[in-house]
Amino acid sequence: MNVIFWLAILSEFAGLVYYLRKFWLLTRENPAYVYPEQYRQVLYPIMVLSLLIIVSLTAKYCFRSSGSATFIALLPLVMLVVVLLMVIITAIWAGGKWR
After folding, report:
1. Which UniProt keywords apply (predicted)?
2. Of 12, 89, 23, nearest to 55 (Cα)?
3. Rounded to an integer, what distance in angstroms lies between the CA atom of residue 41 and that of residue 23?
4. DSSP summary character for residue 49
5. Phi, psi (deg, nearest 5) at residue 48
6. Cβ neighbours around 75 below 10 Å, total
7. What's the rounded Cα separation, in Å, for the pair 57 and 85?
8. Which of 65, 73, 95, 97 holds its CA 20 to 30 A away from the CA of 26?
9. How many CB atoms lie within 10 A of CB 48?
10. What percent of the chain clears pLDDT 90, i.e. is strictly above it?
11. Distance of CA 95 to the CA centre of its chain
Protein backbone atom coordinates (compact mmCIF):
# COMPACT_ATOMS: atom_id res chain seq x y z
CA MET A 1 0.00 0.00 0.00
CA ASN A 2 2.90 2.31 0.75
CA VAL A 3 4.45 1.81 -2.69
CA ILE A 4 1.14 2.48 -4.43
CA PHE A 5 0.72 5.67 -2.40
CA TRP A 6 4.16 7.00 -3.32
CA LEU A 7 3.71 6.10 -7.00
CA ALA A 8 0.42 8.02 -7.03
CA ILE A 9 2.04 11.01 -5.31
CA LEU A 10 4.96 10.86 -7.75
CA SER A 11 2.66 10.85 -10.77
CA GLU A 12 0.63 13.76 -9.37
CA PHE A 13 3.83 15.66 -8.66
CA ALA A 14 5.02 15.02 -12.22
CA GLY A 15 1.74 16.42 -13.55
CA LEU A 16 2.09 19.42 -11.25
CA VAL A 17 5.61 20.11 -12.51
CA TYR A 18 4.35 19.85 -16.11
CA TYR A 19 1.60 22.43 -15.53
CA LEU A 20 3.93 24.70 -13.54
CA ARG A 21 6.33 24.64 -16.49
CA LYS A 22 3.47 25.50 -18.87
CA PHE A 23 2.48 28.39 -16.58
CA TRP A 24 6.08 29.62 -16.48
CA LEU A 25 6.27 29.52 -20.29
CA LEU A 26 2.99 31.44 -20.53
CA THR A 27 4.32 34.18 -18.26
CA ARG A 28 7.43 34.54 -20.42
CA GLU A 29 5.42 35.05 -23.65
CA ASN A 30 4.22 38.37 -24.94
CA PRO A 31 1.13 39.32 -22.84
CA ALA A 32 -0.61 40.70 -25.92
CA TYR A 33 -0.88 37.19 -27.39
CA VAL A 34 -1.80 35.26 -24.24
CA TYR A 35 -5.51 35.09 -23.44
CA PRO A 36 -7.06 34.56 -19.98
CA GLU A 37 -8.45 31.22 -21.15
CA GLN A 38 -4.90 29.93 -21.58
CA TYR A 39 -4.12 30.84 -17.97
CA ARG A 40 -7.29 29.10 -16.77
CA GLN A 41 -6.35 25.94 -18.66
CA VAL A 42 -3.11 25.86 -16.67
CA LEU A 43 -4.12 27.23 -13.27
CA TYR A 44 -7.05 24.90 -12.61
CA PRO A 45 -4.96 21.69 -12.93
CA ILE A 46 -2.26 23.30 -10.77
CA MET A 47 -4.80 23.99 -8.03
CA VAL A 48 -6.38 20.53 -8.22
CA LEU A 49 -3.09 18.64 -8.23
CA SER A 50 -1.69 20.76 -5.40
CA LEU A 51 -4.81 20.15 -3.35
CA LEU A 52 -4.67 16.39 -3.98
CA ILE A 53 -1.02 16.21 -2.93
CA ILE A 54 -1.53 18.33 0.19
CA VAL A 55 -4.66 16.47 1.33
CA SER A 56 -3.19 13.02 0.75
CA LEU A 57 0.05 13.88 2.59
CA THR A 58 -1.97 15.41 5.43
CA ALA A 59 -4.12 12.28 5.69
CA LYS A 60 -1.03 10.09 5.74
CA TYR A 61 1.10 11.97 8.24
CA CYS A 62 -1.26 14.08 10.38
CA PHE A 63 -4.16 11.63 10.67
CA ARG A 64 -2.03 8.47 10.34
CA SER A 65 -4.51 7.00 7.87
CA SER A 66 -2.58 5.17 5.19
CA GLY A 67 -5.61 3.66 3.46
CA SER A 68 -7.48 6.95 3.17
CA ALA A 69 -4.35 8.71 1.95
CA THR A 70 -3.87 6.09 -0.76
CA PHE A 71 -7.51 6.43 -1.83
CA ILE A 72 -7.20 10.23 -2.00
CA ALA A 73 -3.99 9.94 -4.03
CA LEU A 74 -5.66 7.49 -6.41
CA LEU A 75 -8.80 9.61 -6.95
CA PRO A 76 -7.77 10.74 -10.47
CA LEU A 77 -7.29 7.10 -11.50
CA VAL A 78 -10.63 6.11 -9.96
CA MET A 79 -12.38 8.93 -11.81
CA LEU A 80 -10.70 7.90 -15.07
CA VAL A 81 -11.97 4.33 -14.69
CA VAL A 82 -15.51 5.50 -13.84
CA VAL A 83 -15.64 7.85 -16.84
CA LEU A 84 -14.28 5.14 -19.14
CA LEU A 85 -16.96 2.72 -17.96
CA MET A 86 -19.63 5.37 -18.49
CA VAL A 87 -18.40 5.97 -22.04
CA ILE A 88 -18.47 2.24 -22.79
CA ILE A 89 -21.98 1.82 -21.36
CA THR A 90 -23.22 4.86 -23.29
CA ALA A 91 -21.78 3.46 -26.50
CA ILE A 92 -23.50 0.13 -25.88
CA TRP A 93 -26.84 1.78 -25.16
CA ALA A 94 -26.57 3.98 -28.23
CA GLY A 95 -26.02 0.86 -30.30
CA GLY A 96 -23.45 2.56 -32.46
CA LYS A 97 -26.02 5.02 -33.84
CA TRP A 98 -24.35 8.39 -33.32
CA ARG A 99 -26.23 10.28 -36.05
Report:
1. Membrane, Transmembrane, Transmembrane helix
2. 12
3. 9
4. H
5. -65, -45
6. 15
7. 29
8. 73
9. 16
10. 78
11. 31
